[in-house]
């Protein structure tokens, strides 16, 4: 049995309706795997993509730039905060990360940037490595502020995809040996496996 990546795309329209656009197997999450996945969505009719929420996976970012150059990309702030732990000593002050997390609850990007400057002034000397990394990378996590406020909560992180992954794991029976899988059929809205 070999490990494989499952690539998933969820689309959301401006009314907030969500649809699973595709679920596909790949040998790994490489740039070429993501590119093929996104090109497949384009061939099936995906167009006018305005906004993408993703983690900081280099292969995915490269594929998005190539296939969806018109889309603004939001780096998941939850993954960003987890990555921040790599730049802190183990016994760091919990308030430091909590105050960084609060930047994502501001009304607009100007307010977030003002509070970021205050955060750097407060914590920068004590945690220089973290403050330098945050200054260098945080703008990718502020893209969601371009959207209307009602979309901020759901489109600043990949939590919706994480919940979907957890649901797939929960509903998938565990087996010691699985049959060979050549791939999953592309998901189509309104079509279930029971349909003829």
Describe the structure in your own words.
With 196 residues, the chain is of the alpha+beta class. The chain folds into 2 domains: 1-76 and 158-189, Nucleotidyltransferase, domain 5, CATH 3.30.420; 77-139. 41% of the residues lie in helices and 13% in strands. It contains 8 helices and 4 strands. The chain has helices at 31-43, 58-67, 77-84, 94-101, 109-123, 128-137, 152-155, 159-171, and strands spanning 5-12, 18-26, 51-54, 72-75. Strands 1-2 form a two-stranded antiparallel sheet. Strands 3-4 form a two-stranded parallel sheet. The two termini are 31 Å apart. The model is unreliable at 187-196 (pLDDT under 50).
Share of helix among residues?
Answer: 40-55%
Total individual domains: 2
The total strand number stands at 4
CATH architecture of the largest domain: 2-Layer Sandwich
- Average pLDDT confidence is 88
Radius of gyration: 19 Å
Identify the overall geometry.
globular
H/I helix tally = 8
Series of secondary-structure elements, N-terminal to C-terminal: EEHEHEHHHHHH
> Residue ranges: pLDDT <50 for 5 or more in a row?
187-196
Q: Biggest sheet, in brief?
A: 2 strands, antiparallel
Kindly provide the name of the CATH class of the largest domain. Alpha Beta
| CATH topology (fold) name of the largest domain | Nucleotidyltransferase, domain 5
**Lateral strand order in the biggest sheet:** 1-2
The CA-CA distance between the termini, in Å, is: 31 Å
Strand content: 5-15%
Helix- and strand-based class? alpha+beta
Outline:
This protein has 196 residues and is α+β, with helices and mostly antiparallel strands.
